[in-house]
Design brief:
- The chain has about 525 residues and is an alpha+beta fold.
- The protein is about 40% helix and about 25% strand.
- The longest helix has 28 residues.
- The protein is globular.
- About 30% of the residues are buried.
- The N terminus is likely disordered.
């Protein structure tokens, strides 16, 4: 036998995460869904072209628009491919118009895995890879990459590969049995009682009423033309005004409560917060649309306990992570760092202690000077007085009815009560390595931020604060909202707090007496 003839050359496939890493494609099963979704999006144009075109040229334009939309969606699925090299994530797509995007791996902060109903039909998911920068547009930003159709297993592999770099790079010969992920918190059915106090259903009702009113106005349609609506309006017209107000309030309250409970179930059902062996907090939630978010504990800068007034009155709160890479955006990005949905306050503090190793949010806070109370009372009362004066002027000069300014006068005690409650909510503390600050009344928040995560310290005073001897200490941090404020603290206490939070930073600017 000839040695050269019998020698077989082994073909070694390039490894994942290397310079010549293999390319991957989107799951082809998405081709069964994407054309249908594109048709639904183009349905108004398509129906208009078919029903009202009657051979006109714009009818063919409408049909061509629909065909282009479907073709674009199909070509996106067929031509999209991605790979993970040692330094970046690359993505190519497009048939006629090619697009290429690359995200450096060392800038990746989040891999958000979402499974909408269209994905769950075929056990697929959408992996959203981002750098954590804020994007104000509706679609993905330039620092974000969305793989819209991958298997659930592939999405989890991407999350592990891109976020758990240390764990993936560990030697395989030390693959001893690692402890399983630790359950930190899970949703409890009894927490549904807090759903009506979130008032999320009120936003749904407001949006629905606004949408119906908009279309009715555009179509010059009067809802009173319906016999049912006419009967209801007539019934309310024949009853005393106070009875109609009470019935309307009770009906609205019931509707908001039902919608809030439904929203809680859809958003937070199957909620689980776990800690993985690689030092990562993993959040899973959702009933119809499922979502999976990972937070590396190395990037965790603290937590925030949110207590809106209705939820606070019911003894509830929710907990949000302050971590690098989690954005305070809208829509799908909102709530990405939710560590616990609306739940009992005691359970929220247990989660804070489990996540941080201690519970700084339960530390007794330093009360702020009485001058801060006067500022809040003054601003609350003057705002209502100015509104009442403007309404009174309109009633006197423009013939407006008198009841608006009378209602404003009635609201004065409530405004003063809100100002007093805002003062009661003020407080701060410096405990160990954490800065704690609390503020707000209608939406009270207690932020716990690591001092070693601060990017600086800012002390500011307005004209009225200078007269009152107060300052506001701002703690910038590259996470969460970007900064957290200690509002209206005494000048001496504020400077001392700022100097102790970041020792030595303000020393050159402080005059020791």
């Amino acid at each position: 036998m000839s040695s050269t003839a019998d020698t077989e050359t082994a073909v070694v496939r390039p490894a994942e995460g290397t310079r010549d890493a293999p390319w991957h494609h989107l799951d082809r099963r998405m081709l069964l869904i994407r054309p249908v979704l594109d048709l639904v999006k183009s349905l108004p144009v398509l129906l208009g072209a078919l029903l009202f075109g009657h051979g006109e040229p714009w009818q063919w334009i409408g049909l061509a628009f629909t065909a282009v939309a479907v073709f674009t969606g199909v070509s996106h699925v067929l031509t999209s491919r991605y790979r993970i090299t040692e330094s970046q994530v690359e993505w190519h797509t497009g048939l006629l118009l090619r697009k290429q995007r690359a995200i450096p791996r060392d800038r990746i902060r989040t891999v958000d895995v979402t499974s909408e109903p269209k994905h769950r039909l075929f056990s697929l998911a959408a992996a959203r890879i981002g750098t954590g920068r804020h994007s104000h547009g509706k679609g993905p930003g330039k620092d974000e990459l969305v793989l819209d159709a991958v298997t659930v297993a592939e999405a989890q592999r991407l999350r592990t590969l891109l976020l758990h770099r240390k764990a993936v790079a560990a030697s395989s010969d030390t693959a001893a049995a690692e402890p399983p992920e630790q359950l930190v918190a899970a949703v409890d059915k009894r927490w549904l009682r807090y759903a009506p106090f979130t008032l999320s259903g009120l936003a749904v009702v407001g949006a629905a009423v606004g949408t119906v009113y908009h279309f009715a106005h555009e179509l010059h349609f009067d809802p009173v033309q319906f016999s049912l609506v006419r009967t209801v309006v007539g019934h309310f017209a024949d009853t005393p005004a106070w009875v109609s107000v009470v019935l309307a309030a009770v009906g609205l309250l019931l509707l908001v409560s039902v919608l809030s409970v439904g929203g809680y179930i859809l958003s937070f059902w199957n909620f689980r917060l776990t800690r993985e062996p690689a030092g990562t907090l993993h959040i899973r939630r959702g009933l119809i649309t499922t979502r999976s978010v990972s937070i590396e504990e190395d990037r965790l800068r603290g937590v925030e306990v949110r207590e809106p007034l209705p939820l606070r009155l019911a003894g509830g709160a929710r907990c949000v992570a302050i971590a690098g890479g989690l954005r305070e955006g809208k829509g799908a990005d909102k709530g990405g760092g939710l560590l616990l949905p609306p739940a009992p306050v005691a359970r929220v503090h247990e989660v804070v202690a489990a996540v941080l190793g201690e519970d700084p949010a339960a530390t007794p806070l330093v009360r702020h000077p009485r001058r801060a109370l006067y500022r809040r009372l003054t601003r609350a009362v003057i705002g209502v007085l100015l509104l009442g004066a403007a309404l009174y002027a309109l009633a006197w000069l423009a013939g407006w009815p008198d009841w608006p300014w009378q209602v404003a006068v009635v609201l004065l005690p409530f405004a003063a009560l809100v100002g007093w409650d805002r003062y009661r909510g003020l407080g701060h503390a410096l405990t160990g390595r954490y800065l704690v600050t609390r503020s707000g009344s209608l939406d009270r928040g207690t932020a716990v931020v690591r001092c070693d995560g601060l990017t600086g310290i800012v002390v500011e005073r307005s004209f009225f604060q200078r007269r009152a001897g107060l300052v506001t200490v701002i703690a910038p941090v590259a996470a969460g909202k970007g900064h957290y404020k200690v509002l209206d603290v005494g000048e001496t206490d504020g400077l001392t707090l700022a100097d102790e939070a970041l020792p030595g930073l303000l020393t050159p600017f402080l005059e020791r007496r």
